[in-house]
Every structure is written in structure tokens, then in C-alpha cells.
């Protein structure tokens, strides 16, 4: 594993995407502990894409338009659901005093589904990981597993950082319902936009 892999991975992870947006939204609305669960969920959501790329299943998305379209539109529907879930009363961005285990688990599950239902993540891993592994090496598979693990660790660290920064504004948001209302609408609109953009995207 070289510095090129680390630098490229960090650059890709730092770019604001759906997972980053989710961690920031949860950090603002629920605080750091909740944003930590969001980061864990988003990181776990990488596992299926990483496994698919390592064993070659992600290649199906290149050859099967139907498979790609099915996963894509499931992702679109989930993005629209997230938009609705954020803006509704009692949704993901509402301030709640109780921090029970079930609510934290739901936060993590939502984060996991965000990445699982993103077909471009599998395509990214399929194109990304092999660049840093010698295909003729005897332990190429083990090397790809290690790189995927490092990528997930970096994702967790960066997403936790985003969530921490957002959670610092949590108390400010708690005391200003109008600010929270504006944030809910903004995040809902952004998730809706991301869903529409995914629907219009090509392989």
C-alpha cells in the first residue's frame, strides 16, 4: 500500500456526497453520538460493494443494464424516502431528548442502506482497487481486502470528523427552531436533488 492509495482515498472520501451529507444532518439534529452511529452505518454500507469488487460481481453492472437500473432506482426511491423522512415531524433531523438504543440502530441502518443502494459505489471499487494491486501477485486478493479495509477505516474517520464538526452546532440548532426548520428543508431538498440526479445518471 503506497502513499498514492492513501492520498487518492482521502481525496475521494473528503468530497461531499450522500454519506457525508447524512452524517452532517444527523450531527446537527441529534449530536455527536448519533453522528457516530451514522458514520458506522455508512462505513458498513461499503462492505457489499467492496466484496462485490473483490470477487468480480460488480462487473455485472458493466454488462447488465437491467441489474444496474434495478439497483439505481432502488437507490432513487431511498433518497426520496430520506428527503421525506428528514422534513416530516419526528423524522431523522428532529431534536429528541431520548437517545434509546433502537433510535441509534435505526440511524446506523439508514446510513448502511444509503451506500448499499448506490450502484456507483460498486463500480467505483471495481475501477479503484485494481489500480493499486498487481494482478499477477500471488496474494492479490488479500491485498485488495486490506486496501478495502483501509478505505473503510479512512471513511469512518473522515465521516466521524464531519459529524463531530456538525455536532458542535447542535446546541445552537436546539435553541433556534427556525434554524432547524430551514436546515430540514435544505437537507430534504438536497436528498431529493441527489435522488433525481441518480435517476438521470448513466453507467
Plain-language structure description:
The mean pLDDT is 78. With 203 residues, the chain is mainly alpha-helical. The longest helix is centred in the last third of the chain and has 28 residues, at 140-167. It is globular. The two termini are 29 Å apart. It is built from eleven helices and no strands. The chain has one domain.
Give a quick rundown of the structure:
With 203 residues, the chain is an all-alpha fold.
Helix percentage: over 70%
Average pLDDT, to the nearest integer?
78
Q: Which series of helices and strands comes N to C? A: HHHHHHHHHHH
CA-based gyration radius: 18 Å
How many strand segments?
Answer: 0
Which spans have pLDDT < 50 for at least 5 consecutive residues? none
Overall shape: globular
Tally of distinct domains: 1
**How would a textbook summarize the main sheet?**
none
Distance separating the two termini: 29 Å
Number of helices: 11
Beta fraction of the residues? under 5%
Structural class: mainly alpha
Question: What features would you highlight for this structure?
Answer:
globular, single chain, 203 residues, mainly alpha, 11 helices
Question: Layout of helices and strands, plus pairs?
Answer:
Layout: H1 3-14, H2 18-30, H3 32-44, H4 47-55, H5 60-63, H6 65-87, H7 101-116, H8 119-128, H9 140-167, H10 170-174, H11 177-200
Helix pairs in contact: 1-9, 2-3, 2-7, 2-9, 2-11, 3-7, 3-9, 4-8, 4-9, 6-11
Amino acid at each position: 500500500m503506497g502513499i498514492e492509495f492513501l492520498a487518492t482515498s482521502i481525496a475521494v472520501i473528503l468530497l461531499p456526497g450522500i454519506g457525508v451529507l447524512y452524517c452532517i444532518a444527523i450531527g446537527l439534529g441529534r449530536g455527536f453520538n448519533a453522528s457516530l452511529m451514522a458514520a458506522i452505518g455508512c462505513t458498513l454500507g461499503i462492505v457489499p460493494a467492496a466484496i462485490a469488487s473483490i470477487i468480480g460481481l460488480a462487473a455485472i453492472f458493466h454488462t447488465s443494464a437491467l441489474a444496474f437500473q434495478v439497483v439505481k432506482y432502488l437507490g432513487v426511491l431511498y433518497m426520496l424516502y430520506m428527503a421525506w423522512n428528514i422534513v416530516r415531524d419526528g423524522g431523522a433531523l428532529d431534536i429528541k431528548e431520548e437517545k434509546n438504543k433502537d433510535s441509534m440502530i435505526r440511524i446506523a441502518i439508514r446510513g448502511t442502506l444509503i451506500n448499499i443502494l448506490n450502484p456507483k459505489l460498486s463500480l467505483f471499487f471495481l475501477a479503484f482497487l485494481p489500480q493499486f494491486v498487481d494482478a499477477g501477485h500471488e496474494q492479490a486478493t488479500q491485498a485488495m481486502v486490506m486496501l478495502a479495509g483501509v478505505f473503510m477505516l479512512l471513511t469512518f474517520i473522515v465521516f466521524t470528523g464531519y459529524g463531530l464538526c456538525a455536532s458542535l452546532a447542535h446546541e445552537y440548532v436546539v435553541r433556534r427552531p427556525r434554524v432547524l426548520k430551514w436546515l430540514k428543508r435544505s437537507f430534504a431538498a438536497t436528498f431529493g436533488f441527489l435522488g433525481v440526479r441518480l435517476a438521470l445518471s448513466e453507467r
